[in-house]
Structure formats: C-alpha cells, structure tokens
Amino acid sequence: MAEGKRIDFLVEELRNDDWAVREDAAELLAEIGDPRAVDPLIQTLDDEDWHVREAAALSLAVFAEPKSLAPLMELMNDEKASVRYAAAIGLSSIADPKSYDVLKKALEDESPVVKRVAEVGLEAIKRK
Predict the structure, then answer these.
(1) CATH class given for the domain over 3-127
(2) Could you tell me the residue ranges of all domains in the chain?
C-alpha cells in the first residue's frame, strides 16, 4: 500500500465507531511519522473516548508541531490523568514558552506522573 493511501486510510479510521480502532489509528499515524497526520490528530483530541484522546496527544508529541500547542494546552484540563499526562508529554516535546504557565499549574496535579512530565516540560522550555 502506498504511503499516502495508508495515511488516508488511517485518517479515515480516526472516525471509526470503535474507539479501539480510533486509538490504534492514532498510534499508527505517529509510527508512520508523516506530518500530514498532524491536523487529523489535533481534531481527534476532542474524541469522546479518553483512550483515543490520550493516543492522539501522545502521537502529536512525536511531531512536536507548534500548531498543536493550543489544543494540547487545552487538553491539560481533561478529567483523565492519563490524557493530561499525554498532553504534558506533547507540550514538553514542543517546549514552547507559551505553555509555561499551563505546565507550571500542572505541578499541582493530583497525578504524580503528570507532575513529573510537567517538570520535564518546564526544564525543556528553560533550555530553549
């Protein structure tokens, strides 16, 4: 299957009725690493299922694309700690000073892994 057709197929699968298929599609888009996946992954951050939101955020971390900054910052308010963790990884990979306040606030998160990734992100911003 040509690379473009594979990406198109996976982007379509991001809208599948089965959350597990959507989650797998988000993960596979990161593995392929084609930047055409960024916009569909950003749209997937609004998925109804937290597994899919988490996978999309982790996949966006691979790309470290600045246009995913605002959506990932918003995702730091998600009710699920694993989604906040994934969003913090994405923000850490981008390391944009605009996310400093969001990551600083995450130092008070109830989840120790979110706190730790926020620390890493703040350090990455300081090193830039």
Answers:
(1) mainly alpha
(2) 3-127
Q: How many CB atoms are closer than 10 A to CB 128? A: 8
* DSSP category for residue 128: -
């605002």: which residue's tokens?
70
Q: What is the 3-state secondary structure (H, E, C) of 61-123?
A: HHHCCHHHHHHHHHHCCCCCHHHHHHHHHHHHHHCCHHHHHHHHHHCCCCCHHHHHHHHHHHH
Give the type of residue at 91.
L
What are the tens digits of pLDDT across the range 25-44? 999 999 999 999 999 999 99
Distance CA 77, CA 43 (A): 16
Alpha carbon separation from 45 to 26, 56, 67 (Å, rounded): 10, 6, 13
pLDDT tens for each residue of 89-110: 999 999 999 999 999 999 999 9
Q: What is the pLDDT of residues 54-69, one digit of tens each?
A: 999 999 999 999 999 9
